[in-house]
Predict the 3D structure of the following.
Amino acid sequence: MGVLLTYVSEAIKILTTLVYTPLLLKLLGDSEHGIYQTVSSTVAYLSLLSLGFGSAYVRYHSKYYVKGDENGIARLNGMFMLVFGTMSLVCLICGGAMIGNARAIFGDKLTAAELERSKLLMIILILSMAMTFPNSVFNCYVTAHEKFIFQKLLIVVQNLLNPCLTLPLLMLGYGSVAVVSVSAALTAVVFVSNLFFCLKRLKMKFCFRGLEFSLLKEMGAFTFFIFLNQIIDQVNWAVDKFLLLRMIGPAMVSIYSVGGQINSLYIQMSTAVSSVFIPKVNQIVAKSDDNQALTQLMTKVGRVQFLILMLILTGFVFFGKSFVHLWVGAGYDEAYLVALLLMVPVTVSLVQNLGIEIQRAKNKHRVRSVVYACLAVANIGLSILLIPRWGSVGAAAGTAISLVVGNILFMNWYYHYKIGLDMVAFWKEIGKLIPATAIACAFGWVYVRFVPVGSWLMLLVSVAAFAAVYAAAMWLIGLNDYEKQLVKKFLRKLPGVK
């Protein structure tokens, strides 16, 4: 149910994005949209103040839970609330410093009016960010207790309300200020909802006496490299916008952001599956640290992720250019190439992203973080070299090269030889899905050569035909018996299906 609700949430987000983004571009204009995207990405760096402690919570909660130590969990809750409360205060202080130095951060491409609007957006986004730190304690507690139905329903409601509340304000002329204000208000609602659910329903307890602050030193060694990895993620997914703004201007950021938004939705379609298995991974490691069981779990999840992701990726390859043109109009053709350059190399890591949680549960995530940090620096250098010649495509290419080296080449070697997972067996199972994918790709290649896709109706018909061929090929020669039973079990739960 957690996975299903996540996909419902993602479907809502995709559908609203299809309607919302073109209106946002039209109502804001290229310049203000570029400013909004850049400011959002810049303020997002403040999330790094969490120092990776959110990932540590589930790991240490699992240890206390296996022992049946309720007092230990209460003390853990108290310590994390103090830590994250402090982080919230530091966020406000650092955010104030960022606002005071906005001109130095964003460069001289912005006019005086654009700079003032950027500062106002920063104020609202920083206040919203400050709320996320104490909220993460409650959110992690919900995750640790595997209450995914409440957690995912909350996200579904948030995704529905966001565009419904924002669009009327945009039409009244409130611009990007309306976008961030509604987002901040919904963040506050989610915070209060999580608080009441944890305290009233889950009976979450806090103990602020006898806190084991010595654990912070142990956690610090564990979370530092998660923190380093968060920095890398921010660099890889946000620095391109920052470089484009400083080197070319806000209009180019807008083009890149469209491709980046497609890639972000693509990534979220993968984490929808793996996110609900985080507690199970930590429990397996805490109880037995059985590499065979972990490999089997990663393979099962990886195959499901591959099935979903390859449908999206191959469909986008054949119909993405028409989609982008119909979606945001002329002038954004480069966004298709940006999206492809980001989506293709990241696919391998998305199929394997349960491995990240396995690394963290085993406390063997340090080497990955260090290697990725080096590649992030290389990404910046490559982007600086490529942006002047190829603009947004050059920025995406720099990111793509670093993803190939890190996510594909290094990580598979590391999983197999250092983590102890059987990656040969993993890829043999994934490889069994390739023939069915190839059949769908052959159909797509022939289809686009002879059938013009120039309207939304034709696009929907074309995507439906491609998805039908993909599903048929997977059912006939791709899925194993276990996966077919999952599909049948799901279909039987639908109304009117026996």
Observations:
- Residues 304 and 358 are 18 Å apart (CA to CA).
